[in-house]
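For practice. Supply one:
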Amino acid sequence: MCRYAMTVYKGHYACFNCQKTFKRRLLKDINRDTLTSAEAKCPECGNLMANMGLDFKSPAKNDDKQWAHIRDLYTVGITFHSCGCSGPGYIPQDRKAIISYLEKVRSEYLKSLVFWRYRIEPENKKEREQDFQKNGAHLWTVNRNAFKETVTNQEGINYWIRKIQEVEERLTIIKADNP
């Protein structure tokens, strides 16, 4: 097999201080034995840069409003990571859309929490198999071994409470950072 058969893409890193982006190979692409990548520092100011993903398109250097929005997205964990084929998914276009998006995510998470609060736990293998047939998506989200293992309601409740707390923290950040 040709050693150049696999394409190595460079991630896009943004420096919010300089309002510039740079492409950078991951350290693990250079040395396969490396477990983690080194943090990327801006070659101009030396500050740490944000890994924005392969699908990130940089705004113009002087577009302060768009750079502030990109920083808001990054602050709440929304980046442009994907395989490059289908894009990063929905990206809110302004602060109001970010808040609306996060509130919608929280609402969906609350619905999942309700499922776990009212689910009847299986007591034997047959019930577990039936539960998986009926509720496999819910179970698999919480535990990737749900087909083989019983997933308790408490596991599901704990999982969704953590996810709801994460979204609420992001909402607090974006609402508090009012320009």
